[in-house]
Amino acid sequence: MVETGHFALVLAFALSLVQMLVPLVGARAGNQRLMAVGGPVAVTGFALTALSFTALATAYAGSDFSVASVWENSHSLQPLIYKITGTWGNHEGSMLLWVLILTFFGALVAVFGNNLPATLKANVLAVQGMIGAAFFLFILATSNPFIRLNPAPIEGRDLNPILQDLGLAVHPPLLYLGYVGFSICFSFSVAALIEGRIDASWARWVRPWTLVAWMFLTGGIAMGSYWAYYELGWGGFWFWDPVENASFMPWLAGTALLHSAIVMEKRSALKIWTLLLAILTFSLSLLGTFLVRSGVLTSVHAFATDPARGVFILCILTLFIGGSLTLFALRASRLTAGGLFHPISREGALVLNNLFLTTATATVLVGTLYPLALEAITGGKISVGAPFFDLTFGPLMLPLLAIVPFGPLLAWKRGDVLAASQRLMAAFALALAAMLVTGLFIDGASVFAALGVGLAVWLVAGALTDLAVKSGVGSVAPTVMLRRFAGLPRSVFGTTLAHLGLGLTLLGIVGTLSFGTEKILTMRPGETVELSGHTLRFEGLYPQKGPNFTEDRGRFLLISEGNADGEITSAKRFYPVRQTVTTESGIRTLGLSQLYLSLGDAGNDGSVVVRLWWKPLVTLIWGGGLVMMAGAAMSLADRRLRVGAPSRRRKPAAAAVSASPT
Amino acid sequence: MTRKQKRLSVILAGLAFLGAAAGLTFYALGQKASYFYMPADLTTATVQPGQRIRLGGLVEKGTIVRGQGATVAFSVTDKQKSVKVTYTGILPDLFREEQGVITEGAFGPDGVFVADSVLAKHDERYMPKEVADGLKAKGVWQESKSE
Prior knowledge:
The complex is a heterodimer.
Chain A: H1 2-29, H2 32-36, H3 38-61, H4 68-73, H5 80-85, H6 91-112, H7 118-142, H8 167-195, H9 200-231, H10 242-267, H11 271-293, H12 307-331, H13 346-377, E1 382-383, H14 386-403, H15 417-423, H16 425-441, H17 447-470, H18 478-487, H19 490-515, E2 517-523, E3 528-531, E4 534-545, E5 550-560, E6 563-575, E7 580-584, E8 586-590, E9 593-602, E10 608-615, H20 619-636, H21 647-659
Helix pairs in contact in A: 1-3, 1-7, 3-6, 6-7, 6-8, 7-8, 7-12, 8-9, 8-11, 9-10, 9-20, 10-11, 10-13, 11-12, 13-14, 16-17, 17-19, 19-20
Chain B: H1 3-32, E1 34-37, H2 41-44, E2 53-59, E3 65-66, E4 71-77, E5 82-88, E6 100-107, E7 113-120, H3 129-137
Parallel strand pairs in B: 1-2, 5-7
Antiparallel strand pairs in B: 2-4, 2-6, 3-4, 4-5, 6-7
């Protein structure tokens, strides 16, 4: 099975070479048959990659330690679920997952792209094939997961205990679906540049792909953040770690792309800009892959450091980013510029959104790369952390968030800020009230906290205002209103949900940072501690044995108003194979807030260091992310965007184009 | 406005944004980036009390003293010089004698480094990269020791 997987991988590489060359040549020569090769090859390539991945997953599930990668990252005593998720809990396997998703997206274009102009489809598949070929070669040359060991070891070296968690089943696949999903937008852009033409179907196709990728990336980042929060035992949800920034930059650029694609689809303006953004977004995804996988950064994500891999990915990076940008410089002037619009309009607001988001992306990029550049040039080592990003990213985000509610209320072409402001009066009053209540009535609230709460309420109320205005609240009879509400396009609900989710996330962040409390203390069994109105009694440390670890589980009784209200446990786990200790935090969700408990070192007298946090509204941080995902899903469900739905109108155009080259 | 004027205004707005961001970035890099030092570097470099830095090295053997509550004192060494560090909080799981650590904080007026965060590697097969590089540069640590 392992050799089958290996062989399938080599075949998939060979097919990706075919996919990158044949359709491209076909599109240039106008040869229908050569162009048609792209589709079946892409689908077959995906099937082979899936076979290869299944083979590796089978080796992991069956603990086949004759495979080097399995030996290094698995153990026979691990629970089955971690044996399987361990498939991508290492460098080689995670790269295989990367190409699996890449070929999956390629196959989707091949299957559902029948209503695309034939040359565009051929070129898109060819570019997808190029990316695939580069990464297949990377895997085969430097990170082959199928290398055998002879003689086979009897026992494996275990998966990094930090990764032995359900988070590994969720976070990497979601994140990769997002990262790699942007490759489709990239391929469409490069294909458009190769053709020197952007037509209506281009915009119709790029927007849903952006939505899909953005939705998964949002989920991947949110889940990664929650995983780090509960697994690392530090109680933090975002560390401005370069690895986090690596996923955050494509998200910011992708958010900008999402918005500029709307302008392009509706008004056929900002074409060239959208195209450039699509290239940049995927470039940032590639940069993220490089930062995380090359080992230039030390983190839990850098599974092993091998300079050859770093250099290889750097070459891929240079080739694709340099190549696509050069192509852009050469060809962009050939594309026809889009329509005109007034600065005060929906388009204008979206341009402003793009300015803020791309500048913010640039500051994160500088903060992430500057330490690396400095070290390479002068050898000086600095760390750029939260204080830097608070000072640069923060001031850029605040005004952006403040203008978000205006955008959807402005009309296309020429908007009226005054009218929009009038409609937002209620939302503004609500935000002001929330700000005053926070500032005046909550003890210890800082100016920042009051502003933050106000801004979050402003976002939520503003998002709902848009919905209310569009369904005619206050101006038409309730029955008419309900009918209008039900008749609103799904994408309107999508916008509302996404902006609402943003507000919720902000509320969670402000709530946790401003009103959170923490205590560090030494506790003996029987002692109690009180934090923000919650009393905990330490019951003692109880040794336990798991499948591949031993642990000291500290049990704490939560006492609410004198009555026992369940138990919170936190443990120090010891994994003997890797001689590693991990902390299992204890979390109790109360409403939207959480009580978070983390165990420190135990003393000789049965006492233990305990760190306890009260995190108000913290669940909203990730809950908001889920709401944003729901918004994207809602927009995707919009009939207008459903792939294939507009085909009746597009068919004649497609036929005309495909007929012309012959 | 004509197309040209519009394009110009968009470009100017973009430049204004970039300028503002660049200004913020330079200011923040000057103020908020913390530099990494090994104990022996501190004899040559001038670090004011209160200036945030990162101090890395090995936890010196026999220096870990648990004080009141959750306060811990230990020394960070690069085998040439060592620096006393105090930290209040939960130490990372991989914190132990002779392990590489990075502490972040500032010197108090008494010359003791008060750390507000202590990082150790997640996986014990590896050293923090900065510490490994620093020790290698000082010739007290060889690559072979890691495996």
